[in-house]
Structure prediction request, 105 residues.
Amino acid sequence: MEAIGAAVALSIAGLAVFQVLAAGRTAAIADGAAEAAAIAVVNGQDPEPAARAAAPGWARSRVHVRAENGRVRVTLRAPAILRLVPGPLQISAEAAVRRPATEAP
Prediction:
């Protein structure tokens, strides 16, 4: 009987570890997407397609981009491995851009 309880506890702990790993991977993806969106802003392009293109296929529909005043914030919903977490787990990354100063002649 203790073996069954231990197996259940280990399974739940394993799922929790995978959830933490998924959140960490999502943070890395959001960071890269924010950087790509910021580069798009500097080049005068729309940041949302750039952020989506920087994300892998499963994450593209989960990307939300907000850009204003040279700052880009990308929010990405992490995959939920455990349904015990209420609501979607959202990870945000931010990047700031500044246009280079023009050189004097």
Summary: Residues 2-42 form the longest helix (41 residues). The CA atoms of residues 38 and 44 lie 10 Å apart.
